[in-house]
Amino acid sequence: MALRPSKGDGSAGLWDRGAGKADFNAKRKKKVAEIHQALNSDPIDLAALRRMAISEGGLLTDEIRCQVWPKLLNVNTSEPPPVSRKDLRDMSKDYQQVLLDVRRSLRRFPPGMPDEQREGLQEELIDIILLVLDRNPQLHYYQGYHDIVVTFLLVVGERLATSLVEKLSTHHLRDFMDPTMDNTKHILNYLMPIIDQVSPELHDFMQSAEVGTIFALSWLITWFGHVLMGFRHVVRLYDFFLACHPLMPIYFAAVIVLYREQEVLDCDCDMASVHHLLSQIPQDLPYETLISRAGDLFVQFPPSELAREAAAQQEAERTAASTFKDFELASTQQRPDMVLRQRFRGLLRPEARTKDVLTKPRTNRFVKLAVMGLTVALGAAALAVVKSALEWAPKFQLQLFP
């Protein structure tokens, strides 16, 4: 059972573009029926569940998430949960840092929750984190990890959250949990190539400002859980990310920047101004629209096509003197959204791009992208995104859908 009131289930505003209440209820009821039909299929229709998680409104309620999230992560809910050692807090090298981070997580709990209940959940949060780390010594704790874990705890409870977080940590979050931030930095290097494909003007402006990508670090490593105040928006994004390729969060980060393009271009072209603007994420984003556009961009510009540009982005930076130093320092901050206000000015001027201007005109293509139907259960883009997720998934998932 969910630990939050079901009225905060993330479906507010669902299909309400002029639709009447009766139409809203009918569409919601239809989607709930389709989700349960997929769950009750033999075998379970995992592709349909992914489409439901991607499409408008996501999985609608926490009760449904309790049933679907384990399927998306291929977690067997009938197996007994991992058992925590009683001496884990004394033995763990990460305990003190985890304790500090969890104590600072007050705003991640529902307003008005009794102190006793919140404190109990915080203790459970600590236990989950330490247990996952103990069972997987190859994983390294990072500040911001607790923001992801608390989301699962609040939605599915301690028992199931432990299993889901462990699977997530060894797959989707694996690159963030390396001993260094090299792989995290590499993922962030996809941000500018995505923006460049859509709006070369915005890309060039940000490059000239030398703003880098540090502003999006906390977005990525917490799956936006730390920076968004509305819990229903956070779980809606988790529906989307769990159903998609692990790089989808960086596409969503890109569409947020693209959505704010005019604000950015109106800034002074310097690091401090642009970084300050982008690090303050708006709370009234059109989430469903951005989710749909992120899926569109993933289909049009898949990671395989951007890999070379992402690598070139890394080569164009004086890693040791500037960006990587920023990452190391940012990772030591007490809150993941406390990024550096000043950077070492070490970016090299980007090399002249040699792409055919007829292939990528110097205009804003974002507004010209066709909406390819992610909000429709059988939309072509939704199917493509689902297919990419299934292709990426571990072999034990592929066996379900040969």
Automatic annotation (TrEMBL):
GO CC list? membrane
Report the membrane topology from the UniProt record: Multi-pass membrane protein
GO molecular function annotation: GTPase activator activity
What is the phylogenetic placement of the source species in the record?
Eukaryota, Metazoa, Chordata, Craniata, Vertebrata
As for subcellular location, the record says: Membrane
Gene3D superfamilies linked to this entry:
1.10.8.1310, Ypt/Rab-GAP domain of gyp1p, domain 3 (1.10.472.80)
Q: State the UniProt keywords alphabetically.
A: GTPase activation, Membrane, Transmembrane, Transmembrane helix
- By what name is this protein known? TBC1 domain family member 20
Q: Where is the Rab-GAP TBC domain?
A: 59-245
Supply the InterPro entries for this chain. Answer: Rab-GAP-TBC_dom, Rab-GAP_TBC_sf, TBC20/Gyp8-like
**Any GO BP:** Golgi organization
Q: Which residues cross the membrane?
A: 237-259, 369-390
